[in-house]
Design goal:
The chain is of the alpha+beta class. The chain has helices at about 30, 45-60, 100-115, 135-145, 195-205, 245-260, 315-325, 330-345, 360, 370-375; strands at about 40-45, 65-75, 80-85, 90-95, 100, 120-125, 155-160, 165-175, 185-190, 270, 280, 285-290, 300-305, 310. The strands form 3 sheets. Strands 1-3-2-6-7-8-9 form a 7-stranded mixed beta barrel, surrounded by 4 helices.
């Protein structure tokens, strides 16, 4: 599914440029540790409450829904979700927005907090089948307005997604010290019903939202366990390049135009995987390129060729990494153009005659050689490149 129209503004997916807070500079091992001065790297939830959100999301598979999160914070600032509330009777559900019923929230919050001692610790909403598994620019702006208000030094935001058969829910912790930098938290699920669910349900006697879907259906989520201590094998990025600032969305649009220029009738479309990694899908999904976490330091990857899953560690992707590194001094538009032209599978290269062209004809005198490498070592980055590379 295309997540933005490349001919229009995409403010929904924009975010202010990150401000380089100390949270950004901590090591991986530190990012796995809880620190009351930063957003927690994990979130604790009882299984009954995760199930409740899953059922609510499945009630609204094509529009957004949402609600409130009640619980408490541990001594080190990790949220514990003990009760989840769904949409109010006057909530507004749209394909790209959810607006909660404010009167409903006020009444529920006062009663739950006063009679149970729980705290209102955050909010949740779904992006249904939009393939946006992280906070949008509007979500981040909304959380920034709330975090730092009296009594709210930190907040939890949960984002749900769904397919026709299952749901995922991702947790994001915000802290007043870190601005729009947030932590994509690992879930630690307590495998039992929350002791507060039957108590609060009885307290409201049917006046709270009850999901119509009877059974939860969970897909793969970002999980941990109470005893997990090991570091992840791959770096865990809190934010993808695409969402760091609005200018990157414009660059992504240029990538689509580049693909359209190089490949006839490709009809490139931008998509986002559940993991949050953007894709460029062409020829109705017959060919797909992924921009992985860590892009642009990491090279793009072919993940689907001829409609079938493609090996990320294939020789084609290995060659792509070499080209991507070789042209590291070019601006990003030129770098992507050169990478794509040099790595595109032969069956998608069409010449003026309408017949597939041989790759060695296209790449003639443009493949990098050891002799050329010295031209890329100019400290002023003012080299003139080959035809494919464009002038830097």
């Amino acid at each position: 599914m295309s997540f933005f129209n490349r001919n229009k503004n995409s403010d929904r997916y924009s975010r202010e440029e990150r401000n380089g807070s100390p949270f950004d500079n901590r090591s991986q091992s530190e990012n796995l540790k809880e620190d009351i001065n930063y957003p927690s790297p994990k979130a604790i939830i009882y299984k009954s409450e995760l199930d409740f959100m899953s059922r609510c999301i499945l009630d609204f598979p094509n529009i957004e829904t949402g609600g409130e999160l009640f619980g408490f914070w541990t001594q080190l600032g990790t949220p514990v979700v003990l009760y989840v509330v769904g949409p109010g009777p006057n909530a507004r559900h749209h394909s790209t927005a959810f607006v909660q019923d404010p009167e409903y929230v006020d009444n529920v919050e006062v009663k739950i907090c006063n009679q149970t001692g729980l705290q209102h610790i955050g909010q949740w909403h779904s992006h249904h089948q939009l393939s946006l598994a992280h906070p949008s620019g509007g979500d981040v702006a909304s959380m920034r307005r709330g975090v730092g208000q009296p009594g709210f030094p930190r907040m939890l935001l949960c984002i749900g997604n769904c397919t026709p058969t299952h749901t995922t829910v991702n947790a994001f912790n915000f802290h007043e010290n870190t601005g729009d930098n947030y932590s994509h938290a690992r879930w630690q699920v307590v495998d039992m019903e929350s002791p507060f669910r039957p108590v609060i349900n009885q307290m409201f006697q049917g006046r709270l939202y009850v999901p119509r879907v009877a059974q939860a259906s969970h897909g793969e989520m970002f999980m941990t366990s109470p005893t997990q201590q090991e570091l992840p094998s791959e770096p865990q990025y809190r934010q993808h390049w695409l969402t760091e600032k609005v200018e990157n969305v414009e660059t992504m649009k240029q990538f689509l135009k580049t693909a359209e220029l190089i490949m006839k009738d490709a009809n490139p479309q931008a998509e986002i995987q559940d993991s949050g990694e953007p894709l460029i899908a062409m020829f109705n999904g017959d060919l797909k390129i992924m921009l992985p976490y860590g892009f642009p330091k990491r090279a793009p990857r072919y993940i689907v060729i001829n409609g079938a899953d493609f090996d990320l560690n294939s020789p084609l992707n290995d060659d792509g990494e070499e080209y991507w590194e070789y042209y590291r001094y070019a601006n990003l538009d030129a770098r992507f153009y050169t990478w794509l032209k040099k790595t595109i599978p032969m069956q998608y290269i069409v010449g003026e005659s309408g017949m597939p062209m041989r790759r060695d004809v296209i790449l003639m005198e443009t493949v990098p050689t050891e002799r050329d490498e010295s031209r890329h070592q100019n400290p002023d980055n003012n080299v003139t490149t080959t035809e494919d590379e464009v002038t830097i």
